[in-house]
Design brief:
eight-stranded mixed sheet, about 260 residues, 13 strands, 3-oxoacid_CoA-transf_A, transferase activity, alpha/beta, NagB/RpiA_transferase-like, globular, single chain, three-stranded antiparallel sheet, CoA_trans_fam_I
Length: about 260
């Protein structure tokens, strides 16, 4: 039952070229930065990533993206990464944009063993009708377009069929975890982490604080260990190395008393 890996490098060592990955995080909040860095050092390429976004330039998944190590992204937000935009528009990167709630449910459904579900999100748009550019050609034409989705009407309202997502691996970050793989996330850093953890066939969790079984309140556990295969204990330096995507400081917080 002890799922602790010797290091982040050991935990990601068997991820092959072309693997699919579900990655937790929202912007830079809750991203498994240590595992991403270890995967960067490991060298796997042609990766197919499912994540809310692809990090930013020089941070998170943006590190892998910058070296052309990601071939496809399924996500819902891409607006903070200039290299992402460049690769997508030049035809180097395939991108499937998904409504954010639909992406969350596709990951949850995949982890719960549900192959597909109907949702009203996207009805009446290209999400339903198809034709969204997944990949551009070098000349700017559409090389690969999204297909039309099956639709049905329930209660007088149209819905489209979306498929659950499972991936070869999942990379997530938790505030606390035990050696059996039970995980607890911290506030907004939970975001897509529990859903990604469920969707991965092999889920690897980096944890800021590793404890023994029984130390976590069972009612506080967000992801049970059945979904987690490997645990990496972060060093104190790794646990506190967190970046802020957009720093906002109110005027009142900088206002002081000026004395002559």
């Amino acid at each position: 039952m002890n799922k602790v890996s010797a290091s982040a490098a050991a935990a990601v060592a068997d991820i092959p070229d072309g693997a699919s990955l579900a990655v937790g995080g929202f912007g830079l909040s809750g991203i498994p930065a240590t595992l991403i860095d270890a995967l960067h050092a490991q060298g796997a390429t042609g990766l197919k990533v499912v994540s809310n976004n692809c990090g930013i330039d020089g941070q998170g998944l943006g590190v892998l993206l910058a070296e052309g190590r990601i071939s496809r992204v399924t996500g819902s937000y891409v607006g903070e990464n200039k290299e992402f935009a460049r690769q997508y528009l030049s035809g180097e990167l395939e991108v499937e944009l998904v409504p954010q709630g639909t992406l969350a449910e596709r990951l949850r459904a995949g982890g719960a063993g549900i192959p597909a579900f109907y949702t009203p999100a996207g009805v009446g748009t290209q999400v339903a009708d198809g034709g969204l550019p997944w990949r551009y050609a070098a000349d700017g034409s559409i090389a690969v377009a999204s297909p039309a989705k099956e639709s049905r009407t329930f209660g007088g309202r149209d819905h489209i069929l979306e498929h659950g997502i499972t991936t070869d691996y999942a990379l997530v970050r938790a505030r606390r975890g035990d050696t059996n793989g039970n995980l607890v996330f911290n506030k907004a850093a939970a975001n897509f982490n529990p859903l990604a953890a469920m969707a991965g066939r092999v889920t690897i969790a980096e944890v800021e604080e590793l404890v023994e079984p029984g130390a976590l309140d069972p009612d506080a556990i967000h992801v049970p260990g059945i979904f987690v295969q490997r645990v990496v204990a972060l060093t104190p330096t790794q646990a506190t190395d967190k970046h802020i995507e957009h720093l906002r400081i109110s005027a009142s917080s900088t206002r002081g008393t000026v004395r002559a």
